Amino acid sequence: MEQPVVHAEGIVKRYGPTVALDGARLTVRPGEAHALVGRNGAGKSTLVSVLTGMERPDAGRVAFGGEPAPGWGDTAAWQRRVACVYQKSMTVPELTVAENLYLNRFQEAGGRAIRWRALRERARRLLAEYGVDVDPGARIRELGVEQRQFVEIARALSFGARLIVLDEPTARLDAAGIARLFGKLRELRAQGVAFLFISHHLQEVYELCDTVTVFRDARHVLTAPVAGLAEDALVAAMTGEAAGAPRTVRTAAGPVGEPVLRAEGLALAGQFAPLDLTIRAGEVVGLAGATASGNTAIGETLAGLRAPDAGRIAVRGRPVRTGSVPHALAAGIGYVPEDRHREGLVPGRSVAENATLTVTDQLGPLGTVLPSRTREFARRMIASLDIRTTGPGQPVSGLSGGNQQKVVIARALAREPAVLVAVRPTNGVDVKSKEALLGVVRQVADGGSGALIVSDELDDLRVCDRVLAVFHGRITAAFGPGRRDHELVAAMEGMAADGPPAGEGTAAAHGTDGTDSTEGTAS
Amino acid sequence: MTGTASPPATEAARPAPAGPHHRPGLARWRDFSLIPVIFVLGVIGFIVSPAFLTRDNLVGVIQQSTELGLLVLGEALILISGRMDLSLESTIGLAPVLALWLVMPAHGSRFAGLELLPTWTAIPLCLAVGAAVGATNGFLILALRVNGFIATLGMLTMLRGLQVGISEGRSLVDVPDSFAYLGRADWLGVPAAVWICLALFALGGAALGYFRHGRALYAIGGNPEAARAAGIRVDRITWIVLAIGGVLAAFAGILYTGHYGAVSAGQGNGWIFQVFAAAVIGGIGLKGGRGTLFGALTGVLTLQLVINVMTLGGVPPLWTQFLNGMIIIVALVVSRYTSGEKQD
C-alpha cells in the first residue's frame, strides 16, 4: 500500500497550562482531499502549525511519505513536503506573479544577477504545468482572491510539496470563485496532490472532500469517509452533542407589526439601483446576494457608512439623515459590519471598551465615561450574549472568533436599536457560535425590533422570515418562509428564479404585502 | 498623576487564562516601566555630582521639561489617534514671533512690528496661530488626503522659513512683560510653567481616561474603520486633535519665550526628534491606539534627566550630541524590555 503523504500520531502541544493538542492524529493519503473540521479552539490551527513545521510538538511524531519529519527549523526541508495557504494572503501585493512565485530564489543555481526574462519564462512554465491561467507579469493586487490562492498553491507545488493545507480558502470568495477554486483543486488531485481542507462550511466539505477528520477540545474525535456520513452526525461530532436533534429554524414568534424601517428610492450609483425596502417589527428580513451584488452596499448605506445618491430612510416613521453613522445610530439603526477585523474591533482594547463604543454618551454625566459603568454595562452584555471571556478587561484580540463577533453584535445592540442591520453576521465562526449568533438576531426581532441580515450564507438566511435576492444591484426576487435553498441560490446567481413569479416578488420587495408573505409562520 | 488610558484594570476580577502571551497584572505596570530608569538616573546623578540633588538643579530640570513636555503632550494625543505631526517644532518658534510681530510697536525698538493689535492680545494670538497651523495640517491630511508625514515635514520647513523671514533671522529680545509672565513667574516657589504643564497633563489624562471624546482617540488610532462604523466622527475628532497639538506647541512657545526672555531664531529647531523619542520611550505606539500620557511624561523626564546628568558630569560639549543620540537609543531598548512590548 502507498505511504500516506502525512501521518501524525500522538501529537501533544501545550501552551502553558493550556493543552492545545492532546494525542492528536491525522493521516492523509496521496491525492486525497481531507477535510479537517472542528469548532474554534478545537486545535485545528495548532495541528496545522505542527504539520507545517511552525511549531514543535511536545510529544508525538510526524512522518511524510513514510519518512520522519525534517528537523525543527529546517524551513527548506519542510517547504519541500507541505505548504499552507492561509486565510490571509501570503503574497506581496505590489510584486508581479513571477516575483511572488520565486520570491527569494530569483536566480537559477549559479547565477548572480536576476534575469527577468528567464524568471518570467520559468513562472509561465510553472503556471502552465498546473493549468493556472494567470499572467506572470501581472501584479498580485490586480488578481482576484482565488487567483492569488492559485499562485500560492503553484508556489507551494514548485517547492515539491505534495500536501497543501487550505485554511478557510472560501471565506472571501463568491460562489463563482469557489466553483473555480474547487475545479482547480480537483484537477490537482488527479495529479496526485493531497489537500487538507479546513472549513466551517460543511456543504463544501461534502462537495469537495472524500475523508473528514473531526477535532474537538484538542482531541481527535472521528475520521470517516464523507460519503455516508450524515450532516447531523458530523455536527454532533463537532459539538459533542447527541445526534439527531435537527437544527431547527425558528421564524417569527408572533405576527409582525408596524414598519420599523422604511427606505424609499434608495440608490447608489455603481452599487445598487433605486429600491424600496420595508422591515417590520418582529421580522427578520434577509438580503441575499453574492459578493459583488450590491447587498453589502445596501446594508452599509442603511447604517450611514455610505451616502446614497437618492432616496430616503425612515425609522419608526421618522426620517433619518443619510450618510451619517451618528444619525443612523441615534435613530435606532444598529449595525454589524461585514468584517469584524477591518471594521468591527479595535484589537488592542478591552472587551468592555469595544462593546460600549456606541454608547459612550450613556456611561456618565457631561461627556464622561465612568469605568465602573462601562464595566457594569459590559458585564450585562457578556452575560446576556454569553460571551466567553475572563472579564470585561480582557483585550478583545484574546477572544475566539465567535466571541469576538458577539462583542461586535453586543455593540450594535447596546443602543437597543429599532432595527438591526447585520452584514454576514456569522462570517468565520464555528457551527455552535453560528447558531448562537443567529439566535440573538432572532431574539432581537422577537423583542419587537426588526432585523436585516445581509448575507450570501444559506445558514444565515435560514432564520429569515422572508428573503430578498439581490443581483447586480437590483432586488430580483422575494421569498417567503416556504422557500427552498436551491431557489435562493439560483436567484443569487442571477438565474431566473423558479420560485414565486416576479410580480409577487417585486411587490413583497416594496413592502406592500410584506405581511402576507410572513403570515402564518408562527412556530 | 492622573489615571490615564487603560481603564482601571479588571484582570483581577477573575483569574486570567494562562495563554502564552498573557501575563496577568503586568499590563497595569506598563506605565511605570520608566520609573526604575528615572531612579537609576537619580543615583548616577548623585554619584556624578553633589550639585545634582539640590533643589535648584531639580527644579531647573523640571522647568526645562515643561516646554518639551507640552510638545510631547500634543504629539502623544496625535500619535494615539493614529497620526503624526512633525511641524510642532516649528510652531513653537513661529507662533510667538507671529503674535509679537502683530502687536509690537512699529518704531522705537530693534524689532519693528506692525502694531495692529493691543499688546494683551499677544497670548491669544499666539495660541490662535498654533490652532491655525494644526487646522492646516488637518486640512492637508484629512481633506486632501495627502501623506501626513511629508505634509507636516513640509509644514515644518515652511513655517521655520516664515519665522526666519518675519524675524529677519534675528532673535526677538524685547518681549512684552505680559507675554513673558507665564514662563518667568514662580507660583508657590515653583515655576508657574511646571504647574501649568502638570495641570495640562492631568487634564489630558482625564480626557483620555474618563471622557468619551478622549477615549474615542484610542478607537480612532486602533482601528479607524471600526470607530467610524461605531458612530465616532473620526475626521472631525482627528482634526480637533491636530489643532490642539498646534495650540499646545504654541503654548510651549509662550513658556519658552518667557523662560529665556527672547524668541531665538532657531527656537525649537531639532526638537521633534526628542519629542518622538520621549513619546516612544514613554510607551506611545507610533501606529496609533496605544500609550498613556503618564508614560509620555515619564519619557520626557527620563530624557531631561539624562541631559542634566551629562552636563553635570562634565561631558565635553563637542561630545554631547553623540551621547544624546546614543542615550536615546539605549533608553529605547531599555523601555522596550521593561515594558515587555514591541514598539512599532
UniProtKB/TrEMBL annotation, chain A:
Matching entries from SMART domains are given as: AAA
Q: Where is this region: Disordered?
A: 496-523
What is an example of a Pfam family matching this protein?
A: ABC_tran
From which residue to which does the signal peptide run?
Answer: none
Q: Which SUPFAM superfamilies match?
A: P-loop containing nucleoside triphosphate hydrolases (SSF52540)
The cross-references to Gene3D superfamilies, in alphabetical order and at most eight, read: P-loop containing nucleotide triphosphate hydrolases
Origin superkingdom: Bacteria
Q: Where is the ABC transporter domain?
A: 6-242, 255-497
Claim: Secreted is one of the keywords in the record = no
Write down the InterPro entries for this protein, in alphabetical order.
Answer: AAA+_ATPase, ABC_carbohydrate_import_ATPase, ABC_transporter-like_ATP-bd, ABC_transporter-like_CS, P-loop_NTPase
Keywords from UniProt, A to Z, are: ATP-binding, Nucleotide-binding, Repeat, Transport
Q: Is Cell cycle among this UniProt entry's keywords?
A: no
- GO MF annotation terms: ATP binding
Q: Spell out the PANTHER family in the cross-references.
A: CARBOHYDRATE TRANSPORT ATP-BINDING PROTEIN MG119-RELATED, GALACTOFURANOSE TRANSPORTER ATP-BINDING PROTEIN YTFR
This chain belongs to the protein called Multidrug ABC transporter ATP-binding protein
Q: What species does this protein belong to?
A: Streptomyces albospinus
Higher taxonomy: Bacteria, Bacillati, Actinomycetota, Actinomycetes, Kitasatosporales
Automatic annotation (TrEMBL), chain B:
One Pfam family, short name please? Answer: BPD_transp_2
**Which residue spans traverse the membrane?**
32-52, 58-80, 92-108, 120-142, 149-167, 187-211, 237-256, 268-286, 293-312, 318-338
Biased composition regions of type Low complexity, renumbered to the chain: 1-16
Q: Which UniProt keywords apply?
A: Cell membrane, Membrane, Transmembrane, Transmembrane helix
Q: Does the keyword Cell membrane apply?
A: yes
Indicate the principal place this protein occupies in or around the cell.
Answer: membrane
CDD domains with a match to the protein in the record: TM_PBP1_transp_AraH_like (cd06579)
Membrane-topology annotation of the record: Multi-pass membrane protein
Can you say where in the cell this protein is located? Cell membrane
Entry annotated with the keyword Cell membrane:
yes
- Disordered: annotated segments: 1-22
* Protein name per Swiss-Prot or TrEMBL: Sugar ABC transporter permease
